[in-house]
Batch of 3 targets.
Target 1
Amino acid sequence: MVHPKIIDVINNDVCTACGACASACPAGAITIGKAAEIRDPEDLTLYTHGAAPNVCEGCLTCSRVCPVIDGFMDDEFANVEQFFGAKSSIKGQDGGVTTALVSALLAKGEIDCVVAIARDDAWGTELVVYTDPEEIKNAKGTKYTYDSVLSALTEPFDQYEKIAVIGVPCQAHGARMIQENVNDKIVLIVGLLCMESFHHETMIEKIIPEILELNIEDVEKMDFGGGKFWAYTKDGEGHNVPIKDVAPYARNPCHHCCDYTSVFADISVGSVGAPDGWNSVFIRNEVGKKYFKMVENDLEIMEEPKPGIGLVKKLTTMKHKNSGHYLEVCEKFSFETNGIR
């Protein structure tokens, strides 16, 4: 059997856990999270055709959809066709643009479902497939804890024809690889700007209680800004520590990531580069342009937001520099990735 490259990604601890391989594997041989922890090679009920690695068919589908194996773009702005600010009437992390966008597209019937993450009061994450334009509003706000968004695509692929995915850079990248290599039912990819994310346990057991000295259930919003990590509590107070105090606790794959702006998305959305209460929006291709045009009349648009795209580029350069040892990690692999293009 051909040795799948994905094994090297996992063994070198650079797997992003985006979930692309789990949803794309035709044999059902890959599982994420809890299912992976309890898998038993003798228990065939956990898998479509049996148990990994016994049923791996050597098709290398997992490698074809892996964002780490595909590598990163050196210039994240080469495919940006439009950059502007926008905000909606929905109260979100900032301008609520992502939520407003997919909610409107669901209401118009332009998409059948949206795969995204919701959270509870303790910042635990839950993968949800939304079909109701009102329910998607429960997913608003940035979650700095991670979940394997793309692993939730298996059932939607069987049930729906027009699927939208919301995710951070590695998830947007994985969704693009699925779309190009396995399943074209993903019609829209909305990517989020992301410097790093954290394991849930790290956030609730270390960062919030020990570093910020807060109760996680009192926190209603988290954010990065001005060189600091912020936690806003229900009493309206903002609490912060320097980013350098929390950055070492980010997930290990984040330390090797060279994508800040979700370069593989159709539309990228963030807060950096736009004023408070607004989102920065990057239209990256004709698909993004088409879908955004369907809802732009529901949004307030700012043609030249400040501080502007220059700040986004500055942070992108910073992330690339900090993650530059990605290629050094690749040298440990028993294969060559596409690396930095």
Target 2
Amino acid sequence: MEDNFLNFKKKSKSETELYIYGNIEPKTWIDDWLGTGKEKTDAFTLKDALAQVDTPNLTVRINSYGGDVSEGLAIYSLLSEFKGQLKTIVDGFACSAASVIFMAGKERVVPENGLLMIHNAWTEAKGDSNTMKKVAEDLEKITQPSINIYTSKTKLSEEEIKEKMDREEWITSQEAYEWGFSTTQERENEYMQALEANFVHSLVMKNKALQKQIEKLQSEKMQELLVTPEQQELNIKEIVKETVEEMTKQIEEDLLKGNPKEKTVGLLFQNKVKEDSWESFFNTKN
């Protein structure tokens, strides 16, 4: 079965490859009518495609920012029921719902340049306080299946998983292996890696280094500041804010230097840095 983003390819009598290189979301009647939605990966289409796999080995290669929670869980269930050997590989990113799909593999590979990202389910809503409370309760329930999957497959406790999802955690190859999200960091064959994936991978690694600097600075300043705990907390928050703003500005200048007219698209940039994306990227949401 051929599709621009949901692509099955029979490599040999023993192995089939599936590429999930798009948004995880259902196709609508508009997509069916206009013939659009080729960038989407949905559970219904995947179900039909899986039925055609006649090899004992299936390798799922993922490069996706994620999408719809229900579609991600459905695809996870479909892949988990595959009777043969299932291997999942990150060819760039496996974010949000795509990271849940990644966990279906018996063998899971996040190579050196790969990234996972996990976070809580979110939505948009409007209404009175009762509506908002109900939405919050629903989101907690919608998030819980993903928490259960991560907990069952990794070395982390439910509390540790929840903490990382609250932080909207970017997970490097080494972290994925140490925490149990992946079973190996190595992959034997060639892979595809988007330019944007390399771009964001570089940002994440710089962010990880920045976080370590912030933690060190916090520790040093806490020892130096002979004030009340409340004042210490206020001082540290101000120091962290100034440091993040300075480093963020420097990273943006470095990345866009020499080509100010270029429009970098994707998760982090589109003409300018989205404020909520940077908050997520630097884990500054409280």
Target 3
Amino acid sequence: MPTASSILEDVDLDSLLDDYFYAEARALAINRLETSATRGVIELEGPPINDETDIVLGYVISRLVLAATDNQALINYVALSEAFRAETYLSSETDEDLVEIVNTLGVVNVKLKGNKFSMNFIDYVRAASKLREGNWKLSNRGVNKGIVELDRETLIRLMRNVIQQHLEELPKAPFEIKEKFEGTIEDLKSQVSKTFTERIGGLNTVVSDRQAEAMKELGRFDLSKAPPCFNLNLMDLQAGVNLAHPSRFFITTFLSSLNQDPEAVMRLFATAPDFKEAFTRYQVEHISGKTSGTQYSSPKCDTLVSSGVCPGPNALCRQIRHPLSYYRVMAESEKDNPVRMERILLAALDREEYPTKLLERNLEKIGDFDFIYDDKIDKRTLSDAKKVDSASKVSVNINHFQGRVYSVEIPKDERKIWITKATLNLTDGGTDYDCLPLTDWKIGLPIEEAQYKSKKIDLVVKPFDIIFDENETRRLFLVLDVLDES
């Protein structure tokens, strides 16, 4: 605001960071950062306890320190705390002063008629970009000749969102600082870092501790098996993003369905900037059935798509209809070795009825196989790898990759074996080579990505002679692993 900006007119950066005269401002800056990071609040007393000039300068210093930390999670925590503080002050203003303040900020333009506020629908969409539920949707607001009408409470809540989004954009020094002092923002960050080295380290530690503690509570949960919708929302949560309600509901129901303790789920949300323990505990325990007696089911993929939770499917997502199915399919490598080999052979033989004799002959021919390979295996071309009976490292292109769900009836049993498989062909030296179907999608997903990007991929493969019928035996590669590009 103009009155706050005027306080910066005669301020020198070196003095601001080092002069004893500004020691109180520096202390207030650290105080607002530390309480934001730990408790999600900013506790600053106004005059006469704290001088107004010190409060304004402390805010500027806190922005510079934030830029120096280069920690987006911390930035998000502070942005929400500052937005809540601003919301409190906006609530105390008259309608006329509220309009003046909002318009002075220059993000949206608001008009007042009677006791109703209005703005252009484009401004509304921009301001409400992170408020996607219920009445916040533009379709539920009502638009008349391009204008959206709001009550006072809604406008103030909307401005909290506007302020939060604005403050999440760093590294960026306030305009007055950039104009007043020469040098790049990186130079400013360097100067600030020297002054606040110890405090910056402490702030980063607070954020890291919150993230680590939340993940530790999840115990045996395996992130590598979770679908993209879960992992990306979890990444946002860990980065200090306030998730929309559908995302929070999904995370809670998904983990509850995997028998995660409600307390562990509740602590996961402690990394959110707007975390309130009592409210979050009530929601999690109600959804998980601990207090309600009814455990809510995790939403299906169609629901996650329509509610904006799904970030877009990968190759495995296209074969399943529920995120829990994804987690179970990704656990293929945890099955016993004989079961894994049986499922691979079933996927390769592709019979409608369980091929008992063919399976027995192939399993007997293969013998005990544990999917483990020697780290010192030789690197070969596919043509040479096909001639040996041991595992080889190969660098190949993927000519074909296609996922499919396959099922086979169990003899004298009222059930089916369901297998999510991928058929593939490898290319080396202009020649295509057939492979046994993949049932391990931890291997399958990077292979599909390599095919999509038309790039080579390093694999560990081993050839097997597979009997398809009395007159057909084919030598096929089994892909054992994907090697890192390094």
